[in-house]
Amino acid sequence: VVQPVYQPVAQQVSDKSKVVAIVIWLIFGLFGGHQFYAGKMKMGLIYFFTAGLFSIGWLVDGISLFAGTFKDQHGYPIKN
């Protein structure tokens, strides 16, 4: 009997640049620029009309960008 060989699944990573996302977050974050860059159009519009969810969402996104847990529209982390 042949035992199946299990290969570890490769972690999917976004093609977006982490450095670019951080720069956009710093300059246009309160207006949702980093959300638009990540492809999250609805969240970008929400940030645009609420000033980054009253700055709380902007701060949380900054922490997740620096931690490497911020995700793009497909759910892949932006790490590169």
Structure characterization notes:
- With 80 residues, the protein is mainly α.
- Helices cover 52% and strands 0% of the residues.
- The protein contains four helices and no strands.
- The longest helix has 14 residues.
Can you describe this structure in just a few lines?
By secondary structure, the chain is an all-alpha fold.
List the keywords.
single chain, 80 residues, mainly alpha, 4 helices, 52% helix
Query: What share of residues is helical?
Result: 40-55%
SSE order, as H and E?
Answer: HHHH
Q: What is the number of helical segments per DSSP (H or I, 4+ residues)? A: 4
Radius of gyration: 16 Å
- What number is the mean pLDDT? 93
Number of strands: 0
Please give the largest β-sheet: none
Low-confidence stretches: none
Shape: elongated
Q: Could you tell me how far the N terminus lies from the C terminus, measured between alpha carbons in angstroms?
A: 43 Å
Strand content: under 5%
* Broad structural category: mainly alpha
What is the fold's blueprint, element by element?
Layout: H1 18-28, H2 33-37, H3 41-54, H4 56-67
